[in-house]
Write a structure and sequence with these properties.
This protein is α/β, with parallel strands linked by helices. It contains 18 helices and 14 strands. 43% of the residues lie in helices and 14% in strands. The radius of gyration is 23 Å and the shape is globular. The structure holds uridine-5'-diphosphate-glucuronic acid. Uridine-5'-diphosphate-glucuronic acid (UGA) binds next to α9.
């Protein structure tokens, strides 16, 4: 099948490579010439395990191409829209500029019967609006949300835990769209992957409600951490105990500095904004609380550091481990780690930061921070070490080995990744979130 993928960021580049891996002939299109040049060389323009291998394999065979020229989309049966939908400047709603401009520039190159499959996360109602905009072009739109996680994106694309096809209301169009999507995903469907065939609104809502649920789960356990902090309870044990109940489950009950990234924070805000437009603000009013709990945890980490520095952060050396919003990613969008580092810098601390993958992206946003390539260089002479992104190399630190490097053995474990007893036994003062 000939496929185009419009937008080659964290979502589109992986989707294009995955579609080539599934056997299709794919062209990825993006307005950023630098990104396209890298992809054309078979290089991933961002950190995503497994993606470089996939790109190299399929760029080499010619099955996967990249271009800045939208005309290259002509001749594809299905066009996936994978552009970003960031938070609008100065507001909370989703900015759909890139989705609209992708459709506008794609339409002249579509043929009647082509299927445009939206993958971007959009407010409910967007597909209907775009269908009206497409008028009598003869192309058919469908919504096919993506559930990939950064760091696991290749696996999530090739073996997703479900597929969702949001089809247009007109039966002939629905048949056209479903047939094209079934063909595109045939090898995935052959693995008995659950498929939900539905309407536009449900497909759009599946995506935002899934992310809202995940964000709520994290903020729930972080709210319990706040209660644990005033009662002497331990939130890690609490999460383990409630997680044994299958109905609750253990995943996404990791209390700590909270969620960040390019999806969860902006998606819950955009959902709230959309619900307000729909006159149903009260239905998702709790998401404002989910957001507030999440942001409070960042300040809690900062407060721990101030406490460790006897209330005087000015001029003190603070080592921050991690900048990406989570491990296995170089993404610093709405990163709790970067936020914590910037807040501490704002208090006058001598903040030294490091990360295995995200230094360049962080530096582009916050050049004022003191970036260190090596772990040793970062922690040397520190009065407090803060673990904010739980990369494996930080999780497996030996407290006895780190001890001689620092000025004062104090650790703030903003991800509750360490065994407090082990660090204390090695001579450290340990502070976690919601832990004894
Ligand atoms: C999220 C969803 O998990 C994906 O299903 C979805 O497709 C994607 O957004 C998207 O909308 O594109 P992602 O942003 O890659 O994926 O990150 P997650 O793995 O969900 O982590 C989000 C944040 O929550 C991270 O900052 C992570 O550190 C934090 N987190 C996660 C916790 O604080 N505690 C946990 O227990 C789990």
């Amino acid at each position: 099948m000939r496929i185009s993928v419009i937008g080659c960021g964290y979502l589109g580049a992986v989707h294009a490579a995955a579609m080539a891996e599934l056997g299709h002939e794919v062209v990825g299109i993006d307005v950023d010439p630098g990104k396209i040049a890298a992809l054309t060389r078979g290089e991933a323009p961002f950190f995503e395990p497994g993606l470089p291998e996939l790109l190299q394999a399929h760029v080499a065979t010619g099955r996967l191409r990249f271009s800045t020229d939208m005309a290259e989309a002509a001749g594809s049966t299905i066009h996936f829209i994978a552009v970003g939908t960031p938070q609008v400047r100065g507001g909370t709603a989703a900015d759909l500029t890139f989705v609209d401009s992708a459709i506008d520039s794609l339409l002249p190159y579509t043929n009647p019967g082509d299927v445009i499959a939206g993958k971007s996360t959009v407010p409910v109602g967007t597909a209907t609006r775009l269908a009206e905009k497409m008028g009598d072009s003869g192309a058919v739109i469908a919504w096919n949300p993506e559930f990939l996680r950064e760091g696991w994106a290749v696996k999530d694309s090739l073996t997703p835990d479900r597929l969702v096809f949001g089809l247009p209301p007109e039966p002939t169009d629905a048949t056209t769209a479903e047939a094209a999507l079934r063909e595109a995903y045939a090898p995935v469907l052959a693995l008995d992957t659950p498929l939900i065939v539905t309407d536009f609104a449900t497909a759009e809502l599946v995506k935002v409600s899934a992310n809202a649920f995940l964000a709520t789960k994290i903020s729930f356990i972080n709210a319990m951490a706040e209660i644990a902090e005033v009662t002497g309870a331990d939130v890690v044990q609490l999460a383990e105990a409630i997680g044994h109940d299958d109905r609750i489950g253990k995943r996404f009950l990791g209390a700590g500095v909270g969620f960040g990234g390019g999806c969860l924070p902006k998606d819950i805000r955009a959902f709230t904004a959309r619900a307000e437009e729909l006159g149903r603000a009260e239905s998702v009013a709790f998401l404002k609380e989910v957001d507030a709990i999440n942001l409070r945890r960042r300040q809690r980490v900062v407060d721990h550091v101030i406490d460790a520095l006897d209330g005087e952060p000015h001029g003190k050396v603070v080592a921050v481990l991690g900048l990406a919003f989570k491990p296995h990613s170089d993404d610093v969008r709405d990163s709790p780690a970067l936020d914590v580092a910037v807040r501490l810098k704002g208090l006058g601390a001598d903040v030294r930061v490091t990360d295995p993958a995200a230094i360049e992206n962080a530096r582009a946003r916050h050049p004022q921070l003191d970036y260190r390539e090596s772990f040793e260089d970062t922690v040397t002479d520190a009065e407090v070490v803060v673990l904010v992104t739980e990369w494996d190399e930080y999780r497996h630190l030996d407290p006895a080995v780190v001890l001689p490097l620092v000025a004062r053995p104090q650790i703030v474990d903003a991800r509750n990744s360490y065994d407090p007893a082990r660090w204390r036994a090695a001579g450290w003062t340990y502070r976690g979130l919601g832990r004894r």
